[in-house]
Design a protein that fits this description.
The protein is an alpha+beta fold. The chain has two domains: about 5-175 and about 290-375, Aminopeptidase; about 180-285, Alpha-Beta Plaits. The chain has ten helices and 18 strands. The protein has helices at about 5-10, 10-25, 35-45, 100-120, 145-155, 200-215, 255-275, 295-310, 330, 360-370; strands spanning about 50-55, 60-65, 70-75, 90-95, 95-100, 130-135, 160-165, 170-175, 180-185, 190, 225-235, 240, 245-250, 280-285, 320-325, 335-340, 345, 355. The protein has a six-stranded mixed sheet, sandwiched between helices. It has a four-stranded antiparallel sheet with strand order 4-5-18-17, covered by helices on one side. A four-stranded antiparallel sheet has the order 11-13-9-14. Strand 1 and strand 2 (about 60-65) form a beta hairpin. It starts with a helix and ends in a 7-residue tail after the last helix. The mean pLDDT is about 95.
């Protein structure tokens, strides 16, 4: 048994208790303060040195990171999609640990923390440049990849490659799905439903706008999607609505398709403005597609991921797929990147989310083995 495997077995229960503690701590995007502080203190309490929280609420854990040396970044995100600011509910049942966000991404965050502890206890140093472990903020939704953006702005092209521990242990994301997210508001004069009948209704105009957005045939250079996620507005059943708003997004793994979708969106907005109604548009989030990446370096990173994953997921060597992850930022800069996870579960982004408890030890072994490969371990 490898040293990382022995460590995972020895500390499996402690990692499980840490997962139960972390999963209860609220961490909506842009409000990760409680988890950031907990992670920093936990690391310091277990002997990890030079731990800092940056202005983006990332917890940075450097190993041999100097002012100018090249480095590898390995991160797992702190935030969850749920807005709760009070303790999140958690329960154990029939081989499952259930909590909102318990898998995405808390289970992977625990692996990163335990790996930092392992590297510190064993006094290991990277074999090639520095390694920066990061408990990062703002991966989900309107977090808009805030934490990863800050890391890449800080270290730039010193970053040789970036790995995000996110999702489950059966697949690898190696291609960036870009997106744009908008809040769209329509305002009209409104009025009394009987006395002012004939006045323009913001809801009716919004319905027509949504129909226009959904009438588009998506371009075919990559995989492209769109969605109206929320709609709200109006005052009462007997009021002609003065205001209505939606949240709208489109995504694609092809840059040219994102451009086409943006043009269609802008044309639809201008069409309704030409009708004399007020249409307000706010860009809430933008995630870039990838840029060309050195194929040999990306292939080497993929092989490193596959080598570790195949040891602990039944021998599967997954091929790369498209996704929207923290890797969007480095991939848009042409930096080799990949994303995979260290658990099995179901229900991500729902309050019924759970992880399978018997997947946690193999996932722990996987994460330790992979991270240790940058410190002279087998890969």
């Amino acid at each position: 048994m490898m040293m990382t495997e022995q460590y995972a077995v020895e500390y499996a229960q402690e990692a499980y208790e840490l997962l139960k503690t972390l999963a209860r701590i609220p961490a909506p995007s842009n409000h990760e303060e409680k988890r950031s502080e907990f992670c920093k203190q936990w690391l310091l309490d277990h002997g990890v040195q030079n731990v800092t929280i940056d202005e983006a609420l990332n917890v940075q854990i450097p190993f041999e990171v100097t002012d100018d040396n090249p480095l590898t970044v390995i991160m797992a995100h702190l935030d969850v999609v749920f807005p709760d600011m009070t303790e999140l509910p958690l329960k154990e049942e029939a081989g499952r640990l259930c909590a909102p966000g318990v898998g995405d991404d808390t289970a992977n965050l625990v692996v990163l923390l335990m790996a930092a502890r392992y590297l510190t206890e064993k006094k290991l140093t990277p074999t090639d440049g520095g390694v920066l472990l990061v408990c990062n903020s703002g991966e989900e939704g309107l977090g808009n990849l805030k934490g990863c953006r800050h890391i890449m702005k800080t270290y730039g092209h010193r970053v040789k490659e970036l790995i995000s521990l996110d999702g489950g242990m059966k697949g690898i994301v190696s291609k960036a799905v870009g997106s744009k997210r908008y809040r769209v508001e329509i305002c009209t004069e409104g009025g009394h439903s009987y006395g002012a009948f004939g006045n323009r209704n913001a809801i009716a105009y919004m319905a027509a706008l949504i129909d226009s957005l959904y009438s588009m045939k998506v371009p075919q250079n990559g995989r492209t999607t769109y969605n109206v996620g929320t709609i709200s507005g109006g005052t009462s059943v007997n009021t002609i609505a003065q205001q209505c708003e939606i949240l709208y997004e489109f995504r694609s793994d092809a840059r040219e398709d994102l451009t086409i979708m943006d043009r269609h969106f802008e044309a639809a907005i201008e069409y309704f403005r030409a009708k004399g109604v007020t249409v307000n548009v706010e860009l809430l989030g933008e995630r870039p597609c990838g840029a060309p990446v050195d194929e040999d370096k990306q292939a080497a990173l993929m092989e490193r991921c596959q080598n570790s994953m195949s040891l602990y997921n039944g021998g599967v060597r997954p091929q790369g797929s498209s996704g929207s992850t923290d890797c969007n930022i480095p991939l848009s800069m042409g930096i080799p990147s990949a994303c995979f996870g260290c658990y099995s579960g179901h229900g991500a982004h729902t309050r019924e989310e759970y992880v399978e408890t018997d997947s946690l030890l193999p996932g722990f072994k996987l994460g330790l083995h992979f991270i240790n490969s940058y410190f002279g371990g087998e890969a």
